[in-house]
């Protein structure tokens, strides 16, 4: 899911004309060594924080059916995560960096969600809304100054971007549909006696006239033994 969010952001920024103007869009960590090797105008989209949105965690499981309407699997609900990015612009002059950053800001704030047409993989299959928040207040994530300190670089202008995206649930295959009826047998009355072959319950055509819900004709139970009267005793 994370790489699919990356691809959605890259496509969104590409539509703003960055790549057409020769600006690279990368997802590297903007460390001091990375900055020293950079040679072309670049927009860096660095993912630095991933947290689950526990409020949106669902329960239960959904059912998956095949073309014939048979249950083939059960799928747990998706779990939602917040992905926080640090977006920076890199160029030879601060004015050029600010121009790039302004272009990125305009492209991102125009959308509250990642457009469905830009989603790929599991995000596209789920068909759920992927939220997008740019330069918002109250982001529950490390401050930009702490991120720059951890990267070993110098603080510079940046945008905070948070994406709320679903991670597809786990799919577990279901048992195949029942195709044969249950066999019912009676236990032997005494040890050593053979059991009856039994009767098999039917799951189709159980409501047909003249049928009793079994695969074969219903056996008539044996008549109860006649009790002898005193007058029937032999002398």
UniProtKB/TrEMBL annotation:
Region of interest: Disordered: 187-235
InterPro entries: Pvc16_N (IPR025351)
Domain (Pvc16 N-terminal) ranges: 4-179
Domain of life: Bacteria
Basic residues composition-biased segments: 225-235
A Pfam family recorded for this sequence: Pvc16_N
Ranges of Basic and acidic residues composition bias in the record: 188-221
Name recorded for this polypeptide: Pvc16 N-terminal domain-containing protein
Organism in which the protein naturally occurs: Streptomyces vietnamensis
């Amino acid at each position: 899911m994370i790489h699919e969010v990356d691809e959605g952001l890259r496509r969104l920024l590409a539509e703003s004309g960055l790549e057409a103007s020769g600006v690279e869009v990368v997802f590297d960590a903007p460390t001091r060594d990375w900055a020293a090797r950079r040679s072309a105008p670049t927009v860096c989209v660095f993912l630095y924080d991933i947290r689950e949105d526990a409020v949106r965690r669902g329960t239960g499981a959904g059912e998956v059916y095949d073309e014939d309407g048979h249950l083939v699997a059960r799928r747990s609900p998706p779990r939602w995560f917040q992905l926080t990015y640090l977006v920076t612009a890199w160029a030879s002059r601060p004015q050029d960096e600010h121009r790039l950053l302004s272009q990125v800001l305009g492209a991102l704030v125009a959308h509250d969600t990642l457009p469905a047409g830009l989603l790929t993989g599991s995000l596209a299959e789920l068909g759920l809304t992927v939220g997008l928040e740019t330069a918002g207040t109250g982001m529950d994530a490390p401050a930009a100054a702490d991120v720059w300190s951890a990267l070993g670089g110098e603080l510079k202008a940046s945008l905070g971007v948070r994406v709320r995206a679903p991670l597809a649930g786990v799919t577990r295959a279901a048992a195949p549909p029942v195709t044969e009826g249950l066999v019912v047998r009676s236990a032997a009355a005494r040890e050593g006696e053979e059991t009856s072959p039994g009767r098999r319950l039917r799951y189709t055509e159980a409501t047909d006239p003249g049928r009793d819900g079994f695969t074969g004709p219903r056996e008539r139970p044996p008549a109860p033994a006649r009790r002898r009267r005193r007058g029937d005793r032999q002398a």
